[in-house]
Structure formats: C-alpha cells, structure tokens
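For the sake of transparency, this paper describes our internal protein records without simplification. The tokens are whole numbers drawn from a learned vocabulary of local backbone shapes. One such record is reproduced below, unchanged from the form in which we store it.

. . .
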Amino acid sequence: MKRILTIPISVMSLLLIFSCGNKEVEIAKTKVIPFTVKDTSVLATFTFPATMQGVQDVAIFPQVTGRIMKVLVKEGQRVEKNQVLFEIDDVPFTSAYDVALANLEMSKAKLETAKLTFESKSHLFERKVISEYQLKLAKNDLLTAQAAVSQAQANLTNAANDLSFTKVRTLVGGYVGNLPYKVGSLVSPQISEPLTMVSDNSEIYADFSLPENAYLSIVSEQTEINNIPLSLIMNNGVKYKYQGHLHSKSGMISQSTGALPIRSIFPNPETKLLSGGSCQVEFSYQEDKAILIPRSAIKEIQDKLFVFRVEDGKTIQIEISASRYDATNWLLLPNKDGNYPLKSGDIISATTNRMKNDMEVEFK
C-alpha cells in the first residue's frame, strides 16, 4: 500500500519564503495624477455680505414731556431739514413762557428802582447827609436787582426753548421711518423708542468685513485699494446699476472675526436702496501672478483646506487658504502670515481620494 505524505500549510509557507532567496518584495506605490502649479493672469472677484445704512440715520426724540397733538408726516415721506414732524401740546409751555416774561418785566422794573435809589443815595452821601453804610446797602440792592434780571432772562430763554420744542423738527433731510406714536400719546425725553427715524438715503453705506488673507492678497497687487470700483448685488440677486467705492476702513483687524471692517459708499439718486437692508458687495481686480488650483486637488477637513505636494516620490500635506474662482478652480490666497504655501513649479496631486501625508506615490 502506498503512503501519501501530508505537509502542513505552515511548513509550505516557510518553504515558499525560503524559495524566494534574497529577493525583496516590492510594495505597490499609489498612482496619482500630477498638477503643476504655475502663475497665471486672472480677474480676481470677491463677494462679501454687507448691511446698508443711510449716510445719516437720525433718531428723533422729544425734548419736552407732553401729549402729541399732531403727526404731520407719513411713513416713507421725504422731509427737508428743519421741517416740523410732530406737535406736542403747548398750553403748559405757553403759560410758563408768559409767567417767565412777566417775571422779567417785574425784575427790570425793580432794577430801575434800585438804580434811582442808588443814584439818590450817592448824592446824599456826597453831601454827607447819609453814612457810607447806607450807600453800600443801596449798591447791594442794585446788584441784587441786576442779578434778578439776569435770572429772569435765563428763565425766559428756557421757557422759550421749551415752547419751541413742542414743535418737533428734523435737523436733517431724508425719509421718515416708522411712526410708533399716534395722536394723544404721552411722550417725554426718556422714551425708549424714538418718535421716528429720518434717514438721509441720498447715498448708502454698505458695511462688510474683508478677511485678513483676502486683504493681504488685494493690497499686494493694489497699493491703493480705494481705486478698486465696487459693485453692489441687491437682496433679490440683481446687480445695482451704480458703482461705488471704498469710503473708509478700520485701522486694525478684528480679534474676534479675523477680518478687517470695511465701509463702502454707493450713490442712491433713485432711493432704491433702503437703510437697514442687506446686500452683497463685489469687487474685482486684475492679478498677474495668481495661482489657480483645481477643486479636485483640495481636501477639506472641518473648516480647513489642504493639498498634497509631491516631493521625492512622497506626499506632503499642506494647509492652504483659497476662495472659489469658478466651477472647477479655486484661487490661492496668502496665509495669515502673508505668505503663499505654494509657488510656481510645485507639483501637487490632482486628486485627494485616499490621500494622506507621507505616502509613497508615482505619477500616472
């Protein structure tokens, strides 16, 4: 009978290993599609959300306490400087003015009497009919009467001002906002909500924040950011027909947002833009040494962006800052230190699927 020799699998494995001799087992490298970074000329466009505000938004508060007798304007009405908007009950203020005026006339009469008395006492003192003490008393009465006239005049001025404040005027021209108070409402200077707002909308401020890296990218190409024309996209998506320009910018980056507060200004001759509205501010500039990166080459991890640069057959994961340029490309921006993490001639992987740092790769 023939015997069948049985060899365990583990032993066979060892035999196979030894049969390979000293030959090394090669590990397959990941194949990647290379993309060579290069400088290019692009029209860089940035769009940022903004809020609109009139050149002057003035809150109208009463300066005296009383009931509103007349509301002389309507919401949205155009008003001119010094126009009367409200009338407050003036009866108590008219009475106070009349009393102040009467007190002034009385004080003036007493002053005239004190003058005559002092002049008479002076003649008598010269003739040595009265003592110096009596002359000084007369002079003190004269000074007291003069002070009383000054005080009465001040009281009359205050009463006149209070009476004039019963007609509530606007110090600027513009458009009337909401009218929360009606005829009969009791108002005072301490009310929490103003009688109305008057907005000068002949021009409109659009306030937005420019991220630090975008600002660094712009000023590196534009020494005068004020020269960049601005466009405004209204809330309905329609581009406003008038261009604007930079009005002012903050002198420091906000520590809480990492962005630079910017104020732009747009003409508003047709009053189409309203104070308090929202919009988007868009501006473009020509950049001659821009770097465009395919969207497929960018890996997003949480709120950070990365690319994989290939050096000596291995990948290096690099964090970048970029903004969307078109449907397939993103525009490289400087990092917070103002430097660009990539330069012309660098090779990156055009895809990021299953890519990680320090991988051995070869090009397809």
Notes: Residues 30 and 361 are 5 Å apart (CA to CA). The chain has a mean pLDDT of 87.
